[in-house]
Amino acid sequence: MATPHRVVIIGSGFGGLFAAKHLRRAPVEVTVIARTAHHLFQPLLYQVATGVLSEGEIAPATREILRRQKNARVLLGDVTDIDLAQKTVTSTSPLGTTVTDYDTLIVAAGAGQSYFGNDKFADYAPGMKSIDDALELRGRIFGVFELAELTKDPEMAKKLLTFVVVGAGPTGVEMAGQIAELSRRTLQRDFRNIDPSQARIVLLDAAPAVLGSFGDKLSKAARRRLEKMGVEVAMDLKVVDVDAEGVVVEGKDGTRRRIDSYCKVWAAGVAASPLGKQLAEQSGAELDRAGRVKVQPDLTLPGHPEVFVLGDMATLNDYPGVAQVAMQGAKHAAKMITARLEGKPDGAPFHYRDKGSMATVSRFHAVAAIGPLRLTGFLAWLIWLVIHLVYLIGFKNRVTALLHWAVSFIGRGRSERTATLQQVMGRRAMEKMRADDPNHWAGLGPLEGLPSPQPSRESSSRSA
Fold first, then answer.
1. How far apart are the first and last CA of the chain?
2. What does the angle CA 415 – CA 211 – CA 127 come to, to the nearest 5 degrees?
3. What is each CA distance from 9 to 15, 74, 329, in whole angstroms?
4. Residue 441 sits in which domain range?
5. Is there a single domain that holds both residue 133 and residue 160?
6. Most buried by CB count within 10 Å: which residue of 58, 96, 132, 421?
7. What is the pTM of this model?
8. Active site residues
């Protein structure tokens, strides 16, 4: 019996997961390799960070999603090497190294946070790219209110209740809006020594406008709403330093000033997976400033039609780095693979259909750009609500998310306020372990009780 065509997908985000699902009826063997065991609905991370949703509602298990897809399997592993000549993917896990052979490769490893060359900022200003980030921020956000309640020093309380959000794109705007609602509504009656509504929320960016990609009308509408909620909006300010107790910003005239704050959120800039650099070095493809691969019109790697690069790892026609581009690219790649196997013409160029952009500013208020329409307020918020419910994976997650939104937006509660010290400290502790021993997976080394790591190879078809 002939071995099925082997499709290896790196990443379980929108690009990777949707590529696997679109191949469910194709005569292929799909292997999804990802460093986490879940699919992350990244647009709602800020709601995990601010206690609206639980992490499980936006991050269902990948193998649960694909459990009925008989031609797909999921492997846990951090991909460290792609060999285009040998057509292999090397990944690491607590059990060691795994080498997986492929006939077609789909690289959809996503992007991480970019600190524009100042990676030390990450110690004090977590990004918003993973569940770990969101849980750490939850601990920091709710934790500073607790510490402010304890302190007898008014100046210390002022610093603790100052929140700085860096980046005025959708993530930054949504985060600033939710922190404002948290302090003004949810926590209003919960403390005795402090008034949470007096918290200072600063949203800053080096760009001249909030939500600049949404156009002037929606940008101004979002800014007005934020300022009405008490958010200080500071544009044309570049962050030049971050430490445990605040940030230093620089204006266009070169003047610098300091904002004291113990809770900072970094929502500015993305950097593609370092796997993009590997692909470029082996294929001669170009990279843009964010490390994204300049792909062919059909989303393939130059000189390697068997390799597709999707989502945040690819750049083509200045398409935006949003979920819809990854999802549509995944569908296109699956169609090309199926066409090749059926002997039909392939290589058709990918065309992105822009379905619009939207961002929530507060409860019952959003901004949306859909084709020629520019919507603000409650109608835009309803559209946002429906679209996000549709794209959440799983009926159970949709129901529980809707219930939590009712609790948070109609009422004042936040059902996911639990945070632990481990959540706050874990990321930096793991990074230190990685630095001390970079050869061990996730900095953890072999897990106690497990056999010593051994290399393995995933090259043949699974048995029926």
1. 12
2. 50
3. 9, 9, 13
4. 421-451
5. yes
6. 58
7. 0.90
8. 174
